[in-house]
Amino acid sequence: MKFISTRGEAPALAFEGALLAALASDGGLLMPEAWPQLEASEIAALAGLDYADAAYRIMSPYLAGDPCLDDLEAVLEEAYDGFHHPAIAPLRQVGPNAFVLELFHGPTLAFKDLAMQVVSRFMSRVLLRKGARATVVGATSGDTGAAAIEAFRGLDSIDVFILHPKGRITDVQRRQMTTATEANVHNIAVEGTFDDCQAIVKGLFADRALRERLSLTGVNSINFARILAQIAYYFTAAVSLGAPYRPVAFAVPTGNFGDIFAGYAARAMGLPVSRLVIATNLNDSLPRALSSGSYEPQGVIATSSPSMDIQLASNFERLLFELAGRDAARVRALMEELRTTGAFGLTQGELGQLSDLFGAYSVGENETEMTIRGVFEETGVLIDPHTAVGIAASHQEASLGATPMVVLSTAHPAKFAGVVERATGRVPEQPERLRLRLGQHERCAVLPNDQAAVADFIVSNGRAASAGAGA
Ligand SMILES: *Cc1c(COP(=O)(O)O)cnc(C)c1O
Prior knowledge:
It is a single chain. Helices cover 46% and strands 15% of the residues. The protein starts with a strand and ends with a helix. It has helices at residues 15-21, 40-44, 51-59, 69-81, 112-130, 143-152, 171-178, 194-206, 208-214, 224-240, 258-268, 285-292, 316-323, 328-341, 348-357, 365-379, 385-396, 417-424, 432-437, 451-461, 463-470, and strands spanning 3-5, 30-32, 91-95, 98-102, 134-139, 158-165, 185-190, 216-217, 248-253, 273-280, 294-295, 344-345, 358-362, 405-409, 445-447. Strand 6 (158-165), helix 7 (171-178) and strand 7 (185-190) form a beta-alpha-beta unit. A 6-stranded mixed sheet has the order 3-4-14-9-10-13, sandwiched between helices. The structure holds pyridoxal-5'-phosphate. Pyridoxal-5'-phosphate is lined by residues 110, 112, 143-144, 221, 253-259, 307-308, 386, 410-411.
């Protein structure tokens, strides 16, 4: 299996290359050259398997012919060993034909753990094989950074630099990152928004000299390995609800479009997914694109679901590539238009395909809180604000008939305890694993919204750089 760029001007890479490169060298995103297909009988055979075994069957076609295939079984075993639920990604019924898929049983209480625990292990094994070092640089709206730091802390071959928007993440999210004491972990609070942080990271990757000198690699959802690990739970959830014989719909709390794109990938592999609902908070560039045909990201609005306070959804480029019939020239033109004018328009054909499969709804702050309260009153279950956005959006999706709707529950309520308490009067219980992981002393550099300042910081604090500079 090879991975190709959405912009068509980068060499194709095997899985290992795609894992380490994160971003294609032409600035595009890497995509499998074709979607592996699972027969109905193969999907049916996933029923009853352990999560790691099911994930192996779904992920292995992408690793065919790559040295990482030999690591896959052990990587998955170890990655999910630290989860606090034997099902790893259990389903909970919250209404007639309505389910939440709990993706928060990992060490940092958000769904990012499901992929990050896999990606860090792959990277560490590859670097060990090559006797090389690497520098992970990532931007976070809160949860990616915590999951990355948890997954990479203490690793010998990798330094981690995580940028977060200063003052725009919750206390728990910040402390999960800044109280890590390991020397390979570096936190940077940028005086700007998540989109600013993401732009800096993209800029650092675009600097070829710096990228090579530091062996930069990324663990944001622009890394296809993240998406790949996330495809697995769409299959396990759908199979529990009757796939391949019965279609299933999903509603996904969306920011960077990585998680929901994994749902698209599952469908492209043969899973009967009848509908994918893009659930956003007030940062509504995707719902607006679906209703107007014009994608026009605006300024970021801070909400109670900060991990989705994103306007520029990087992974949307992957879907554009698909909507355009994999015409990389078309994607290049759209991305250039976005860069120069701040917007682009879809053709009727592209928009038609998009709305055939996807619904998209923006959920306001009040509605988010009302949903947390409503679910608690009806079922006694506490949900976090991101999950609430997903549930509220799923309610807007009419006429699904007998098709089950699965809402991805992307974070544990204790991670966003303030909002949950305001909505329900209940303080969600803090799982012990969170309390034990939060240290006392915080370590974090505050830097201006400036790529050069961040680059300097990484060069002077990273180990890969000093080794490279001396050579
Ligand atoms: C990252 C995150 C999201 C958004 O996921 P994307 O893949 O960026 O669309 C939603 N909810 C939570 C809790 C998250 O951490």
